[in-house]
Amino acid sequence: MIDFVPLLQPDRGQPARTIHVVHPDAWAAWLNAQPPRIRTTVAAHRLTGKAGNRAVLPGDGPDDWAMLLVCNEALESPWRIASLGEQLPEGIYRLAEGEPGAAMLGWCLAQHKFDRYKSDDAAQGPRVLLTGEPAKIDETVRLATATAKVRDLVNTPAADLGPAELEAEAKTLAEAHSATLTVTRGDALAQGYPMIHTVGQAAAKGREPRLIELEWGDPKNPRIAIVGKGVCFDSGGLDIKTGGSMKLMKKDMGGAAHALALAGLVMGLRLPVRLHLLIPAVENSIAGNAFRPGDVLRTRKGLTVENTNTDAEGRLVLGDALTKAAEGNPGLILDFATLTGAARVALGPDLPATFINDDTLADALLAAGNAVGDPLWRMPLWNGYDEMLTSDIADLVNAPDGGFAGSVTAALFLRRFVDAGTPWAHFDTFAWRPASKPGRPNGGDALGLRAAWAVLKGRYPG
């Protein structure tokens, strides 16, 4: 992973090339204020002030030049100058007017690449951005590092990232912050967390299911739980996916990637909380001992679940993990999961479907998402659909027939494993960019991470 620290530096008047960022509405006024050589260059490039227009502008000397970008992104957008962070040559830059602010994040992330498997990708030198707000550098670097961690984990193929590798990531995190790591597997998993065990029991040797737990912080502080779905590959099980649907299932551990990154932010800034991180890590494979449609599964909570679809496995492993989280009586539970295709049909790739059982928490998350450019969309925990989970032979089913309200019924299933009085938010996130945008390449991405982090910082100030 790239070191983001050198990419942002305090502005002490050092030599730097200038970046002009002009909004389309201010184009005419900006152009009229420029000297003739600039207006001539703009005319030669046939720029009209449309968003996306850009040009290299001549400076006073033979080696002097500046960059022009016409951009309609808001001043608060992290992605305002991300395209320049990606495309400009190595060097030091400053904005001609104002401070980069939130745009420092996009500048940094534009220079991050997932190059683990690239053999001929020539490295480019850093593009350094100067800022007159040095106090914002550390937080930006923390967020860029956490986002890059999510991207790298999600992009890693399942052959190189299974339950054991997720455990290794958690171990590295625990060692870095003097946290306690507990891993439950084998018979103890089968007895204590039967749904996690059942979903992962068909995996090959070395890829056995496990529950990964990390605890950190003073026990006297408010307890919070962060849970992440760690399905390292999802074949669909015996309800096997088609090839096209299975193609991206390396990303089905995207919830775990978000949870690890968020836990790292919490511990890195030493928020005054007692953190409980839980990752049910499994591979949903096909073998003679794979669980079957129609099986009735036991749960840690004591409920029984009729399995109507082996491809609805994420909610099963999360159910046991949420039960364990609730046993610690946390004041807040956040869970992240690449849970349902229905959420993507409803909201597309950019908006995590967010289900929240507490209005105060919901208001805080939605406001934070808008403020930091990491939007969320609240979906209903509609009680009227709870009856869809009814089973004729067990306490509930994991996937109702008919396909209606698929993301809602999945969230209602999870709600059965959360204590009613505990504020809880469930992020049904895509964790993927199907098309590249400035600073956000095609591939794994963190969606909902920064919004959740902003809420935790505000809720538990240091």
Automatic annotation (TrEMBL):
PROSITE patterns given in the database record: CYTOSOL_AP
SUPFAM superfamilies assigned: Zn-dependent exopeptidases
UniProt protein name: Leucyl aminopeptidase
Keyword Ribosomal protein on entry: no
Gene3D superfamilies: Leucine Aminopeptidase, subunit E, domain 1, Zn peptidases
Similarity remark: Belongs to the peptidase M17 family.
Domain of life: Bacteria
Species annotation: Sphingomonas psychrolutea
PANTHER family xref list: LEUCINE AMINOPEPTIDASE-RELATED, PEPTIDASE B
Recorded GO MF terms: aminopeptidase activity
Pfam families: Peptidase_M17, Peptidase_M17_N_1
Domain (Cytosol aminopeptidase) ranges: 309-316
Keyword match Protease: yes
This protein's UniProt keywords: Aminopeptidase, Hydrolase, Manganese, Protease
